[in-house]
Structures are given as C-alpha cells and as structure tokens.
Amino acid sequence: MRYVVAGALLRERAGGGRELLLAQRSYPPEVAGLWELPGGKCGPGETRAAALERELDEELDVRVVAGAPLTEQVRLREDLLLVAHWAELVAGTPRAVEHQDLIWVDAAELAALAARGALVPADTAWLPELTVALDVR
Ligand SMILES: Nc1nc2c([nH]c(=O)n2[C@H]2C[C@H](O)[C@@H](COP(=O)(O)OP(=O)(O)OP(=O)(O)O)O2)c(=O)[nH]1
C-alpha cells in the first residue's frame, strides 16, 4: 500500500477560534482549482511523518513537525491510501510554491467551500474532525 499524506495546519485567529490552511490544486484538470490539505505521496521507505515534513517544505517552503493522524482515511485507489496528520509550523510563512493559491479558513468558511463543492472530493471525509478543531475557543 502506498500513502498520500496531507497536513492539517492550524493557527489562532484574532478574536477567537482557529483557522486551517488550504491549498488550491493546479493539476490534474479534474481537481485543478479545488482546495486540499497540502501534501503528497510517501516515497519508498519514507515514514509518513518524514514525507509530510518534506512535502510541506517543497510545496509551502515551511518547516513543520508532523503530529498525530486524523482518524479518517480514504482509499483513493486499490493501492493508494490518503491520510492526514496534524502539523505544527516551526519556521517560515507558507507560500504557494506548487499550488495556485493558499487560504486560511475558519469553520464557517470551510463549510461554505464544502457546500459549493470547492474541496477535493476525498477531503470531505475530514470535515467533522477539522470542524471540531476549528471551533475550539
Ligand atoms: N496532497 C494531497 N493530495 C490529495 C488530497 N486529496 C486527494 O484526493 N489527493 C490526491 C490527489 C492526487 O491524486 C494524490 C496526491 O498527489 P500529489 O500530486 O499531491 O502528490 P505528489 O506531490 O507526490 O506528486 P506527484 O508525484 O503525483 O506528481 O492524492 C489532499 O488533501 N492532499
């Protein structure tokens, strides 16, 4: 089984609550323009934590430490499993190196994106967990 590992980065929003970082895919055409958790495929022999830390360095130009996994996993193909981990930003400011754009969203903004089909479809599996984390005050 191969893994795609994606990162859930949170930050505090002024005035209360939290925000989640989303990245807008630029390829392939069927998901271009949709929003996802940034990440990518684990290399051979690479741990999920190491893959996430490498991918976010490459894609966002930031240093992160991978934390606990989210509960939901999504089978993308017979041999490819999508997982997400919480990630802590330790250095740098995210910038869209490989994505079209980046946004920080609160729970309401995440729900609005989901409602209009603007998330990469598989990522909707994480909505309940992400929403709980964003609603913490
Ligand atoms: N990174 C990421 N990929 C996701 C998410 N949701 C989802 O269905 N995918 C799919 C899209 C792709 O088919 C696959 C990951 O591809 P990727 O393009 O990010 O991986 P990669 O950086 O290793 O690049 P490549 O070798 O495929 O070019 O997982 C998500 O939240 N983040």
TrEMBL record:
Entry's EC annotation: 3.6.1.55
Per the database record, which ranges form the Nudix hydrolase domain? 1-127
Q: Which PROSITE patterns match?
A: NUDIX, NUDIX_BOX
Cofactor(s) the protein needs: Mg(2+)
InterPro entries per the record?
MutT-like (IPR047127), NUDIX_hydrolase-like_dom_sf (IPR015797), NUDIX_hydrolase_CS (IPR020084), NUDIX_hydrolase_dom (IPR000086)
Q: Which reaction does it catalyse?
A: 8-oxo-dGTP + H2O = 8-oxo-dGMP + diphosphate + H(+)
The record's section on PANTHER family has:
8-OXO-DGTP DIPHOSPHATASE, NUDIX HYDROLASE FAMILY PROTEIN
Give the first-level EC class, as a single word: hydrolase
Hey, which family's this protein in? Belongs to the Nudix hydrolase family.
UniProt keyword annotations, A-Z:
DNA damage, DNA repair, DNA replication, Hydrolase, Magnesium, Metal-binding, Mutator protein
Q: What is this protein called?
A: 8-oxo-dGTP diphosphatase
State the taxonomy lineage. Bacteria, Bacillati, Actinomycetota, Actinomycetes, Mycobacteriales
MF terms from GO for this chain are:
8-oxo-7,8-dihydrodeoxyguanosine triphosphate pyrophosphatase activity; 8-oxo-7,8-dihydroguanosine triphosphate pyrophosphatase activity; 8-oxo-dGDP phosphatase activity; 8-oxo-GDP phosphatase activity; metal ion binding
What Pfam families does its record include?
Answer: NUDIX
Which Gene Ontology biological process is one annotated for this entry? Answer: DNA replication
Q: Does the keyword Hydrolase apply?
A: yes
